[in-house]
Amino acid sequence: MNPDQKITNTIPDYWYNIQHDLPEPLPTVKDVIDEGGSRIERMNKIRLQTLNEQDANTEKWVKIPDEVRQKYSEIGRPTPLLRATKFEKYLGTNARIYIKREDLLPTHSFKLNSAIAQAYYAKEEGAKGLVTETGAGQWGLAMSWAANAFELECKVFWVKISRKQKPYRVDWCKLLGTEIIDSPSEHTWLGKEILSKDPDSYGSLGISIGEAISFVSENPQYKYVSGSNLPHVLLHQSVIGLETIEQLKLYNEEPNILIACCGGGSNLGGFAGPFLEEKLKNDQLRLIAAESTAAPRLTTGEYKYDYADPGRLSPLTLSYTLGNDYMPPPVHVGGLRQHNGSTVIGLLRHLNLLEAYAYDQKQAFDAGKLFAKLYGIIPAPETCHAIKATIDLALEAKKNKKKPVIVMCYSGNGILDFEGYKSVNK
Ligand SMILES: Cc1ncc(COP(=O)(O)O)c(C=O)c1O
Question: What's the gap in Å between 411 CA and the centre of ligand 1?
């Protein structure tokens, strides 16, 4: 097989590792030594060994295990690449717009691509079960699906306020056998400490991360898994971009603009990452991150080392940050409300390889509603940000009489996020 031609049919045989092609090595994680010793060592211990190795790997291609590939096929990969002609016509643009439909996966979002891989490795390494945190719930649901498929236990620390807003997603997880724990909880020392100070605490993603980490530290038969930010998550998500490359060839197209929404950065990294080699040869190719004004890291944040969680339990990573004590306003874009994000995305931005735009939730939901009206499908609140960026760039092309090929990652379905749509109407 030609080493640069790893795709033998429509589902790739190999994941693409962006670390191989980054113009500079990924900034190293800085350790913090506290009374419990080295934080890096502690985190490595509670995570899966294979995923720790994948984070350190700089080889360009990583074989997708057969069982994972088989599951990708069962969930409907490759997902379609839609030419959005109705959208183009509505906007009156000569841009050609393509939409990668990750919302069609069984749990409604791209998160399943990494959840399946992580559950597979957990089974291989003999873990009893997996523990994670979730905000809006797309990751918690994907992890529940994957744990169930690989017959593993699953425990999800769910931010209390978000859990109340997403009752059906909670029910779905429970149906798959997951134990849902309202966070802050009485299950961990951290939860107990927070509840003793504020029994009515709504929780936050940072608190849920802290609880999941402390639970696994005390129960080592479980492993702690994450749904974004880390290099191994972007690696697994590269199936999105690799499929898109092949599908664009079928349309006889070369992209000019690639757009995805950005929270921790995993759908953006997985979708646009495989185009990095092309971007380094052709500066005209534009990679675009659509973020929320509720947490505008890439547009207004500072590039510096910071903790991943407001509880400051993690080691330090270099990326754009708003400060670990930043409290985003309570908007419904759960997946985009982080104070910092992926080191890979941070480096791309720092090297001027990535543009970023921030939108408020009214702008985003208006774009989502327009798309729903045209296509009859409901974009996830996070996805609405990518749609807004797509509209703006298509209209810019119209103004400048250009005909770019715009490709957007449609990261998820928002049918269970309807309360967000309704509340913004008020
Ligand atoms: C549907 C959807 N899209 C996008 C995101 C943002 O995540 P990331 O930045 O890791 O792609 C999330 C995160 O929860 C999500 O649920």
Answer: 7
Does ligand 1 lie within 6 Å of residue 113's CB atom?
A: no
Instruction: Kindly state the average pLDDT of the residues 214-232.
Output: 96
Residues present in the chain in total: 426
Atom of ligand 1 nearest to the CA of 138: 16
Q: Which residues contact 399 (CB under 8 A, 6 or more apart)?
A: none
Smallest Cα–Cα separation from 18: which of 259, 356, 355, 345?
345
- Banded pLDDT at 348 (limits 50, 70, 90): very high
The ligand 1 atom nearest the CA atom of 414: 1
- 24 Cα–ligand 1 center, Å: 26
- The per-residue pLDDT for 96 is 96
Whether the Cβ atoms of residue 36 and residue 261 lie closer than 8 Å to each other: no
Class of domain 112-224: alpha beta
From the alpha carbon of 102, which atom of ligand 1 is closest? 1
Q: b/e for 302-314, b at 16 or more Cβ within 10 A?
A: ebeebbbbbbbbb
Q: Is 265 in the pocket of ligand 1 (CB under 6 A)?
A: yes
68-109+231-425 CATH choice from 3.30.200.20, 3.10.100.10, 3.40.50.1100, 3.40.50.1220: 3.40.50.1100
* Domain extents in the chain: 68-109+231-425, 112-224
Question: Measured from the CB, is residue 267 less than 6 Å from ligand 1?
Answer: yes
User: Distance from CA of residue 110 to its chain's centroid?
Assistant: 8
Mean pLDDT along residues 190-210? 88
